[in-house]
Amino acid sequence: MLTSSGVVIADRNAASDYVTFLSPTEAEHKLDIDKICARYWTHPDNQFEEWEHKSLMCAEVLVPHNVAPENIIRVFVPSSDLKEFVITMGFDREIIINPDLFFHMGQ
Fold first, then answer.
1. Is 67 helix (H, G, I), strand (E, B) or coil?
2. pLDDT of 29-49, one tens digit each?
3. What is the CA radius of gyration of the chain?
4. Helix (H, G, I), strand (E, B) or coil at 92
């Protein structure tokens, strides 16, 4: 997908007032993958760093129009119930249960 025409990378949530939009080539050199993929964004001694880190963990790949089904090779879900739901929708590719990839509201 990254080589598709018009793809843009947002270094944080695309709706953020502080977002920077990058080409895939620029993103490869400018994104801090360790921060984006970190398990936690908390920085108890530095509130500004925590806000920044939390924002960076919401980086996005923006694909214009749509993603063709044949380009979806796997999906990640937070639970076995959702895995079963995705299967009932006819998805026949790899489904990985990984709750760590999802925000858990109320915890």
1. coil
2. 999 999 999 988 999 999 999
3. 16
4. coil
Cα dist. 23→2, 9, 27, 35, 54 in Å?
9, 6, 6, 19, 22
Cβ contacts of 102 within 8 Å, gap of 6 or more: 78
DSSP class of 74: E
The model's pTM is 0.79
Q: Which residue has the tokens 């939390």?
A: 54
CA gap 32, 11 in Å, rounded: 9
Collapsing DSSP states into helix, strand and coil, what is residue 60? strand
Q: What is the pLDDT of residues 78-98, one digit of tens each?
A: 999 999 999 999 999 999 999
Dihedral sign for Cα atoms in the order 58, 63, 69, 71: negative
Q: Say if residue 105's pLDDT is above 60.
A: no
Which residues are CB-contacts of 70 (< 8 A; sequence separation ≥ 6)? none
